[in-house]
Amino acid sequence: MGTLLWALGAISSRFLGTLTLRTQPPRDHFVASLNSKAEIYYPGSEQFLNASVRWSAAQTPQYDMIVKVSSEADVQKTICFANENKRPFFTISGGHGTTTLINNITNGVGILMHNMNNITIVDNGSAALLEGGVFSGDLISYLWSHGKQTMTTGCDCVGYIAPILGGGHGWLQGRYGLASDQLISARMVLANGTAITVSQDSNPDLFWAIRGAGHNFGVVTQVKMKIYDREPEQDQWATSGFVFTQDKLEQVFTIANGWLESPKRPVELTQYGVFSFNPDIDPINPIFMMWIYWQGPAIPSKYTDPLNALSPAAVDYSVTGLTSVNAHLQADRDGGACAEGFSRAMVPISLTNYSLPALRKVLDIFTTLPTEFRTSIMLLEGYATNRVSEIPSEGSAFPDRDANLLLSPVLTWPKNASLDATGWEIGGRIRRAALEGTDGKLEAYVNYARGDESMEELYGYESWRLEKLRKLKKEFDPHGRFNFYAPILED
C-alpha cells in the first residue's frame, strides 16, 4: 500500500512541475525501499511547504525533496541516496537553528524526523529512550505524567535531540547538569549511512564529541537519557515577573549580579531577564523584565523584596509546574516565541556576570531599533549552574561550564530579504556592546550560533580540545557532509 501511495504521489506531483530525477530508476528504487509509514514530499505540494517552514524565514535551505522518515533504516537509506546523487542532506526536527550556513544547502534532501517521536521509560524508571523527532514540550509532559523529569529546555516547540548535541541549557540544569550530561547512549547514522551505537563503552571518543559538537557527526535516531523521580517538594515552580522602565537597569542588574556571585547560590533559583518593547508602559524606550523562578511553592522574600523596593511598573506572580513554566516566556506551543513566518537572528554571548555599562549600551541599541525590528527581544538567561560547574570540563566537548549567563538577542522582523542585512548589522553591534568590559574573547553557545563564529568561539580555546575534534571529524565525516551547522574545520 505504501509503495502505491508513493507512486500516486509521484504521478500527481508531475502537475506541480517537479520532475527532476524523480522518474529515474534510482529514485524509484529508493522510494520503494522505505518503510511503509515513510512519506516523500516534493516542491509545490502543501506537505513540502509545511515541512520546509523554519522558525526563522531568513534561513532558506533549498530542498529537491523532503523524506519524512519513520525508522533508522529510512535515515540510512536517505543518506545513501543523497550521497549517490551528490546531494547535500540536512536533518529537520524543530527547525529553530538560525545559522546562516543553512542557506548554503541547495538541491538538498531534507530528513524530516517528526514521525520518529516515541518515548519509552526503561531501566526501572531511571532512563528513557527517545527517538530523534521528539519535541522538548512533549518530553516534559510525558515524563511529568509518569512521575518523572529531566533537564529540559526553555521552549516547548524545539526538538529535544538537537540541543543535546550542543550542550543543552534549561530548567533543572542546576540540579542535574546540561541536557548532554543526561546522555547515556545514542544511535547515530554517520555520513556514509552506517548506523552505530555511541556510549562510554562503544565509540567513547565520538560519545565525548557529540555532547557539545554533535551537529558535526551524524543523524541521531534515538538516545537513552537519565531521568529522575519527581519530588513533591520540588513539583511546584513559583514565578514572579517584575517589569521595569529603562532607568532602573543598573539597580536591578546589580542585584542580579549579587545572586550570581553568592558562594551559596541556591539550586532552586533561576533568573531570566528580557528586554522588549511595551508602548503601554513606555511608548518610546524599551522596557525590561526580570523573571524569578524558584523550584518550590514560594520564592523567598530575600529575592523579591529588593525588586519590589524599586517600584516596578508591574508584577506578575504565579505558581505552576514544570509543564507550564515555558508559557511565562511565551515559549509554549501556542506562544509568540514559537510563531513561524518571521525572519529571526540570534547572536549568542556567554558571560560569568553582567557588565552594567555593557548592558546599558545594549539597551541603547534597542532604543534605536527601526520600526520593523521592534518586536525583537533580548534574552538574558541565568539558569542555576550548580551541577553544570561540578562536572569536569574535559569529560565532553561542551567547552563552557564556567559561564553563568547566556545572552542573545532574538532579532525579529517581517519576512523581507531586504531587511536581512540590517538584522545582521544590529546583531553584530549588540554582540560587540555585550562584550565590552570582558577580556574580549567571545564564547558563543553553539545551539544559538548565527554563522560567523570561529571554532574557538564555539568549541573552546584549548588547543587539545580543538585537535581532538578535528581528528574525530576527519575520521567520521571526512567529506564534510555535516558542515551546514557550526562545522569543525581544518586548521
UniProtKB/TrEMBL annotation:
FAD-binding PCMH-type domain boundaries: 59-230
UniProt-listed Pfam families: BBE, FAD_binding_4
Xref: InterPro entries: BBE (IPR012951), FAD-bd_PCMH (IPR016166), FAD-bd_PCMH-like_sf (IPR036318), FAD-bd_PCMH_sub1 (IPR016167), FAD-bd_PCMH_sub2 (IPR016169), FAD-linked_Oxidoreductase (IPR050416), Oxid_FAD_bind_N (IPR006094)
Gene3D superfamilies per UniProt: 3.30.465.10, 3.40.462.20, Uridine Diphospho-n-acetylenolpyruvylglucosamine Reductase, domain 2 (3.30.43.10)
Position of the signal peptide: 1-20
Key words, A-Z: FAD, Flavoprotein, Oxidoreductase, Signal
Cofactor: FAD
GO molecular function: FAD binding; oxidoreductase activity
PANTHER family listed in its UniProt record: BINDING OXIDOREDUCTASE, PUTATIVE (AFU_ORTHOLOGUE AFUA_1G17690)-RELATED, FAD-BINDING PCMH-TYPE DOMAIN-CONTAINING PROTEIN-RELATED
Similarity comment: family membership: Belongs to the oxygen-dependent FAD-linked oxidoreductase family.
Name this polypeptide is given: FAD-binding PCMH-type domain-containing protein
